[in-house]
Amino acid sequence: MKREYTFAGFGGQGILFMGQVLAHAAMFAGFETSWMPSYGPEMRGGTANCSVVISDRKVRSPLVYRPDLAVVFNNPSLQKFGPRVKPGGTVLMVADLIDGGPDRDDVAVYPVPARGIAERLGHPAAVNMVMAGALLAVDPTVTPEQFEAALRTVTPAHRLATLGANLQAIREGMGFVTARRQDRPATGGGGE
Amino acid sequence: MQEPTRRVLMKGNEAIGEAAIRAGCRFYFGYPITPQNELLEYMASHLPAAGGVFLQSESELAGISMLYGAAAAGKRAMVSSSSPGISLMQEGISYLASAELPALIVNISRGGPGLGRIAPAQSDYLQATKGGGHGDYNILVLAPASVQEMADLTVLAFELADAYRVPAMVLGDGIVGQMMEPVALPPPVTELPPKPWAATGCEGRPRNLILSAPYTDAELVELNRRLQRKYAAIRAREQRAECVLMDDAELGIVAFGIAARLALAAADNLRERGYRVGVIRPVTLWPFPETAFRAYPAVRAYLTVEMNEGQMVQDVRLAVNGAVPVHFLGQGGGYVPPVDAIEEQALAILEGGLAR
B119 touching A, CB under 8 A? Predict the structure, then answer.
């Protein structure tokens, strides 16, 4: 078993953090894993992306060329990483920050209005955790419990106040995607 | 599945720092430079709590000289930097070698020449393995390919440096430095080897002198002879390589550090398609593991993959000594060889009849 993930967006959207939580969850679940960052020179506002590999044996390449699943947070990230997703793979996108969708019909696309959801919760910075919830709804590699345990471990002491909001955002993201999946199977293309 | 052993998810740079503290390193000197800053930060926040000294030196030149001082006093000590900073330290490294001082130098290298850029690169191979500074000397050079090895080889570097009284280098790049992987941290060292030669205050014993400059020509000749005997012993005993899928391999891919991980991925894919491909990964770059190249008579060609313009390939060619062709794939300045590019070049060699 090997699953490869790409997370991409702007610096400041919590892209790298989201990948780190997933990698921690994978380690807690007993998998081998790697997390690799790649970001522009600015911490905030620049492009940020990271790769996570989860495997039941030692990870060979920590670099991900063709992810099974991509979570994209802005238009440039969709344009860059959408075409790289493996046929049969999955694209999760922040629908209210992205125009349109990937121009292909061989991947499952889940547009999630994560910014709106996060703002409605009163936690506008939790867009990444809404998307993490969406990921957990479509990808069974780690369980929501393992992901939440990882989040508790990774959240630094000075950010513990965000934990409750983040856990709530995860549940909202999961709930949104689970409800949509029951309505209709995911297909390629299109926004919400 | 359950977590088999207690592991933590760390960045490679942080793993070096934690392993160094556990190995008894109590003196760290350095000056900030990307892509090794996580190591400097880790030492700043953790070394004082372990009873050690973190000192951000005013320059790399000062830092390497502080390392000389701490090592001369018999302490486990280290510096870290990245390529241009390591170039600045070369005079001091030559002095450490001449004074036979054990010390750790970490180079999380970047693309050069000059100031270069922070993209991952392996362009400091020749500088690291051929001395780097002036004079007839070598330092131990260890090349981790995973976060686990960032920890393990840091410990080994301290041990070998003490055992042979030579400086040791851990040579990584921005990928192994900044990626995170699970790591089982080494147990804390409780007892360090005695250093009766150290300058620790001579009350009650004859004084110890730590000298870089001998007083006579004859003494300098003798120092060089002694160093060469030591290097011969290291070459005989301390070569290390990881050889994967090599037993029946017709094509051996040779790569170190993170490039070897990509080579392994390529070898896996080629094996699935029925090609007999393996990987030799030098773990010690100096001493270069030349004996590994004599262990696989089925090999009919080698492909060396590096993130530079062709540096280690020179040592591969020396080790192979013309027995089979040695090909090269690589580029400097931040090139990371894609797995499919390695496969493509390997296939071209295999299907071209191997003998080119």
Answer: no
